[in-house]
Amino acid sequence: MNEQTPVFANPLAGLGYEEATLLAPGAFSAVCARPGVGKTAFLVQMALWALSLEKHVLHVSLCDPIKKVDLWYRDLFSNLVGRAPGPEAPVTWAAFLPRRFIMTFKVEGFSVPKLEERLTDLVEQEIFTPHVMLLDGLVSDDSLEKVIEALKHLAQRHFLPVWFSVQTQQYPCSEASTAVPPPLKETADAMDAILSIEGAADQILVKRIKGKTHSAARSFLRMDPATLLLTDEDA
Amino acid sequence: MNTDISLVRNIGISAHIDAGKTTLTERILFYTRRIHAIHDVKGKDGVGATMDFMELEKERGITIASAATYCRWKDHEINIIDTPGHVDFTIEVERSLRVLDGAVLVLCSVGGVQSQSITVNHQMNRYQVPCMAFINKCDRVGANPERVIRQIKEKLGHNAVALQLPIGLEAEFSGLVDLVRMKALYFDGEKGESVRTAPIPETLMDAALEAREALIDTVSMFSDALMEAALEDRVTEELLLSSVREATLSRKIMPVFLGSAYKNKGVQPLLDAVTQLLPSPFDVVNTALDLHRENAPVPLETDPGKPLVALAFKLEDGPYGQLTYIRVYQGTLSKGDTVQNVRTQKTLKVGRVVRMHADKMEDMEAIPSGFIGALFGVDCYSGDTFVKPGLSLTMTSMHVPEPVIALALFPRGNKSQIQVTKALERFTKEDPTFKSHVDEETGETIISGMGELHLDIYVERMRREYGADVTTGMPRVAYREAITQRADFDYTHKKQSGGAGQYARVVGYMEPAAEEEFIFESRIVGGAIPKPFVVACEKGFRNCLKKGPFMEYPIIGIKIVLTDGNTHPVDSSEIAFQAAARGAFLGAFGKARPMLMEPVMKVVVETPTEFQGTVMGSLNQRRGIIEGSQDEGLFSVIEARVPLSEMFGYSTVLRSLTQGKAQFTMEFSSYQPVPQSIAEDLAKKKAAQKGK
Questions:
Q1: B317 to chain A nearest CA, in Å?
Q2: Looking at residue A68, which CATH number applies to its domain?
Q3: Is B42 strand, coil or helix?
């Protein structure tokens, strides 16, 4: 690793998730929330953390064009380095870029076999070999179960840790509620970790639903509504 | 000539290359009776489209220079600027948008929103130009206007709203449904010159009602009157049109029209829409800068009686001398008037005033505010402002990108040398992104511009229009030097050995300033260096930026802070401090880990999906960083950042890799460090060149 590269901290350490679990080959994790609460911001923070560990990240988006996804990365990166500013930020960003590949599909044109075909092309032609894959924008409809199942197999076949986001409906926000949200109920067993993001009037909470690996002090983190960065500090 | 300014429309037609904008313009001129026959862009008839009047444009089938023309449609006077579609010529597009009040964005119903459409859209946004879209080529296989409308929303961020539905598509494309009047439109006659209205076909009625409801829903968000009328089910054609116009002028919506210019369908309704929906000069607020009040913005009034303010936005050298295209923003520019060029402060008498119809012209007595015309025999540069003598207003300066590529020119023989000099004088006046200079060391004439094609076209024009026998060297990239770490300096310039002495001491540091070209800051306290000498220091440092000590390329991204210094009561002078600054700079620059920087381009390739991997591979081989790929069904869009030095000849490579089915655009993105091994090679080459 470049000696100047800041290693962003594991954003989920406060919830008791360890690096070894989150980024293990074939690890399969989900985050769910209703629209506009912060799923993309969450995934991009996971990506930036992986990038700072010199992992190659494939970011698949079913909702945003390349430019918009890139903007998410730029914004959150500058917010993250803003926590501890250093003159090397442009150098770090330049080092991150070759390690990130954004692939976008229209939701209606997306299928896991198509994704796998593209992924195989990238790897076989030595264009980009991902170490982590993020999939943003799955919609909870009738086909979700099948898509998750196929995605799990893809993760296993390619030894890729996969994080994906699923859009859910409004659920009551209570710090005690840790039930698996409905869209993932049938497939929860396939997941190594499940998180839920819930927005209330004045705060956004990221709650652990499944998969803690050691005793954690907290069951939820906060997402700063201004920067959309995860924090284990109380509001 | 119509003098009612509310009936004037100054519009631009912009699009991606090959979306069909020149064909559309040609049809517009035909239906408005400006021309009496239709020619194709790549005409088999050997005539070529009217707007592509340069010989080279006819040959390549692309529009290089904006040709201004005007026409009349239903009592309205429409001034049209046809704009180039290739990214290399975007200064033309920018100039057009600067002087236009509205624009039509032409999109291909098969290709959809392509990369150049996105660039053009950025430019429209920059100048806040209200625009409408025309989805062309609805007769082509794979035509899908719905998808294009979706793309306008997603990729361009416009609130696109269809005002028409197609009747059939591809080979079945036979007409349009007008969703405002709820009528079907058919285009009869050999050249579609007769528009026939008919009831909407029954099979399309449900879709038409649904689309009209969607139109009213969208537009009513910006019109209370329409919202009320919609709730009470009493939406009239006039109310709907006026609400669409209001929302278009404020850029809240982008109305979308359909057609096939080539098949003579949909052009007349588009012309109606131009007159009904796009702004007249009255509807647009233009501002000038007041030079006497620190460039404070001054709103201009579209009033022919006010003092003159006009902008020269394009120059062309024709057989009768220099032709200056001009837009009058305020006042009237009449034959025989005395006007002042704000840049040179020189006054001049206006000779012949004309208006252009491609390469033909008509004499006029005057150009009133809001109109576009042309002057003969006026010595000026593109972008100059003309005012009534005594006024200190200048039009907002246009954004001009720096050239990124250079070529050496080798004219054969004295005659060619003279012709090249003439051509360069004209081209550099016409196009601010095209520059030329003579290399001090080699004596070669160097031209620089925005891309390979940009320079290629100018070299070709030198050969054809000036008969110059000229060859070119290999393209050269505009490298830069930058530092990567802070370095302190403490330098004393001392020359006190007889005669008038020189003494100056400067202390401070330099550090990288990534986003800026050059920053100079003085933190001198207590008068250690008097102010005039601080200014001399800045001048000294600035002079060092022209040629870096590392590899003699200009320096960018550097901040110099002066913290202390020393003077001598007799021997200190401005010259001494300039020399001290130079000494300090040379000493510190080497310690600040200098590196070579190269221009990196944003490259966007649109390719059939089956070639996606191949295209990515080709970009990868060129040291490109692929940012991502966008799946668009049959097509994929690949976005990458690639060093310019690796992109020479890429169009040929891409054609052969994709059977000619892919296309790409590129534009300057940023300067990035050159990898060590390549920098070493360049240094060796440079040394070898110097040794020769």
A1: 41
A2: 3.40.50.300
A3: coil
pLDDT tens by residue, A54-106: 999 999 999 888 988 998 999 999 888 877 665 577 778 888 999 999 999 87
Measured in angstroms, the CA of B629 and the nearest CA of chain A are apart by 5
pLDDT in tens, B576-589: 999 999 999 999 99
Cα-only R_g, chain A: 17
Residue A8 domain-assigned? no
Alpha carbon A142 to its chain centroid, in Å, reads 23
Kindly list the residues from chain B whose CB atom is less than 8 angstroms away from the CB atom of residue A93.
none
Residue A85 contacts B, CB cutoff 8 Å: no
Q: Are B106 and B26 in contact (CB under 8 A)?
A: no
Task: Cite the beta strand spans of B319-455 per DSSP E.
Answer: 321-330, 332-334, 338-341, 347-349, 353-357, 360-364, 366-368, 372-376, 385-387, 393-395, 405-411, 435-438, 445-449
Q: How far apart are CA A116 and CA A130, in angstroms?
A: 12
Question: How many domains would you assign to chain A?
Answer: 1
Determine whether the interchain pair A70/B155 forms a contact, defined as Cβ–Cβ distance below 8 Å: no
pLDDT tens readout for residues A95-143: 899 999 999 987 777 889 999 999 998 998 888 999 999 999 888 777 8
* A122 CA: distance to closest CA in chain B (Å): 7
The list of chain B residues with pLDDT below 50 reads: 42-47, 56, 58, 60-66
- Partner-chain residue, chosen from B613, B631, B641, that has the shortest CB–CB distance to A104: B631
Q: Tally Cβ neighbours within 10 Å of residue A155.
A: 23
Using the Cβ of A97 and the Cβ atoms of chain B, whether some distance falls under 8 Å is answered with yes
Cβ within 8 Å, pair B612-A128: no
The pLDDT tens digits for A161-177 are 999 998 876 554 444 45
- Six-digit token string for B600: 């990196």
Q: Which helix (H) or strand (E) holds B430?
A: helix B413-430
Let me know if residue A6 belongs to a domain: no
Residue A153, domain member (yes or no): yes
Q: Do A127 and B630 touch (CB under 8 A)?
A: no
Q: Is residue A110 part of a domain?
A: yes
- Contact list in A for residue B606 (CB cut-off 8 A) is none
Partner residue facing B628 (CB), from A66, A94, A98: A66
Whether residue B628 and residue A94 make contact (CB cut-off 8 A), yes or no, is no
A-chain residues within 8 Å CB-CB of B155? 65
Query: Quick one: which H or E segment has residue B588?
Result: helix B574-591
In chain B, list all ranges with CATH 2.40.30.10: 287-395
Q: How far apart are CA B567 and CA B570, in angstroms?
A: 9
Q: How many residues does chain A have?
A: 235
Task: Look up residue B108 and give its DSSP letter.
Answer: E
The three-class DSSP label of residue B542 is: helix
CATH ID of B598-678, from 3.30.930.10, 3.40.462.10, 3.40.50.150, 3.30.70.240 = 3.30.70.240
Q: Which chain A residues touch B514 with a CB distance below 8 Å?
A: 90
B548 touches B474 (CB < 8 A): no
* A70 and chain B in contact, CB less than 8 A: yes
- Chain B residue with Cα closest to A94: B672
Closest CA to B647 of B673, B629, B634, B665: B665
Among B48, B46, B51, which residue's Cα sits nearest to residue B67? Answer: B51
For residues B366 and B310, is the Cβ–Cβ distance under 8 A? no
Alpha-helical runs (H) found in B157-201: none
Q: What percent of chain A has pLDDT over 70?
A: 85
Quote the distance between the C-alpha of residue B414 and its chain's center. 35
